[in-house]
Write a structure and sequence with these properties.
Elements lengths: L16 H33 L15 H31 L14 H6 L7 H4 L1
Helix pairs in contact: 1-2
Length: about 130
């Protein structure tokens, strides 16, 4: 089978724009859902202690509410950063530069783009 008949298996790089756009949009939807879930979790933790004098910092029963809130907020921030990377990748698709290493200008292998859809560098330059 010729390499150009299956663009995803092309190890020399590249991915058709429509495939890249579909994958990026799908991943973006997953990330948006994660952001929403984490923000709801933070809001729920905050609401659960509103109006109460909770001193969970000295509770020997495990993780504190403050820790849980910070954990959820950090996960939401991490997802927001990934969202920004995916939006930038969609901009690169529109500009015709998606899948091109920002360092050497060579195509980023399709396998790398599958694993890291927002990648801006080829494997060699990602190190």
């Amino acid at each position: 089978m010729a390499a150009d008949s299956d663009p995803v298996s092309d190890t020399d790089g590249g991915m058709p724009d429509d495939v890249a756009t579909a994958r990026l949009r799908s991943r973006l939807a997953e990330v948006e859902a994660r952001i929403t879930a984490q923000r709801r979790l933070v809001d729920g933790i905050v609401a659960s202690v509103r109006g109460e004098n909770v001193d969970d910092e000295h509770d020997p029963e495990g993780a504190t509410l403050a820790w849980e809130r910070q954990q959820a907020a950090a996960l939401a921030a991490e997802a927001a950063a990934e969202r920004d990377e995916l939006l930038a990748a969609l901009d690169r698709v529109a500009a015709g530069t998606y899948g091109v290493c920002e360092v050497c200008g060579r195509p980023i292998p399709a396998g790398r783009l599958e694993a890291r859809p927002a990648a801006t560098r080829c494997v060699e330059h990602a190190r």
